[in-house]
Amino acid sequence: MSTPHNEAKIGEIAKTVIMPGDPLRAKYIAENFLENAKLVNQVRGIYAYTGTYQGTELTVMASGMGMPSMGIYSYELYKIYGVENIIRIGSCGGYKPDLKLFDIILSQQVFSEGNFALTLNNDDCHIVEASTKLNSKIMDTAKEIEIPFILGNTVCADCFDVYMTNVNEFLARIPQDFNPVSAEMEAFALFYVAKLLNKNAACLMSVVDSKYIKEIATPEERQTGLNNMITLALESAIKF
Q: Residue 87: left if φ>0, alpha if ψ -120 to 50, beta else—which one?
């Protein structure tokens, strides 16, 4: 059985999925980190590969950009393919002056002012938490392999925040005590779908731009310069 968006057969996707947004990043991870990686989906160019990492079967699959795309793929992975754990890995914009390029952020709670939860589940929900189980594994693993990270709340926007006409007005609408450290575009949908289906989800991000950072990561740096985050996700995934 497959879906209109995923041609993988049941059994071809592992119980734990590492999920970058970019299909080329999924390809990069499969070719450089997995053993015996097999391409199991390429519908719409959304590559999914299943292989092993240190003997543990894992799938790496792209989500595309934005909550609608993440919502579709994560829902099908959990509901149709029996996936239990999804770790999103991606890029983010930094909202704190002490963040540096490629700092790793682990999302604790994520805020969206959009209507994803209302549309999907008639639920007027705008803040959702990561899986405590996954975050604990990631934090323990980060300490073991000595990869520094920042644990914090993040925002999930309906559009690229760099293109907002007034990002400060957007930030002013966020609950005052939420105190976000960064912004991205997919985690709310992932966390909410996981909550709805009683599954596990986490989100690791690397800072690639900020109003406080003069340098902006190139597309090539975004794809290949994030190896610490990728390694942390993979090393955490094999502990489930």
A: beta
pLDDT of the residue at 240:
83
Pseudo-torsion of CA 18, 22, 23, 25, nearest 10°?
Answer: -70
In sign, the C-alpha dihedral spanning 173, 177, 179, 180 is negative
Calculate the alpha carbon distances from 193 to 25, 28, 31, 120, 127 in Å.
Answer: 23, 26, 29, 9, 13
If you compute the radius of gyration of the chain from its CA atoms, what whole number of angstroms results?
Answer: 17
pLDDT at 65 > cutoff 90: yes
- 3-class SS at 141? helix
Q: Reply yes or no on whether the pLDDT at 1 is more than 90.
A: no
Catalytic residues: 209
Residue located via tokens 């690229």? 160
Distances (CA, A) of 75 to 13, 19, 28, 225: 14, 13, 24, 29
* Two structure tokens written together for 85: 């754990």
* pLDDT tens figures, 68-81: 999 999 999 999 99
Contact, 232 vs 145, CB < 8 A? yes
Quick one: tokens of 101? 């390029």
Q: Are 104 and 204 in contact (CB under 8 A)?
A: yes
3-class DSSP state for residue 206? strand
Residue count of the chain, please give it.
Answer: 240
Domain spans of the chain, in order of start: 16-237
* DSSP assignment letter at 3: B
- Side-chain-side CA neighbours of 240 within 13 Å: the count stands at 27
* Architecture of the 16-237 domain: 3-Layer(aba) Sandwich (3.40)
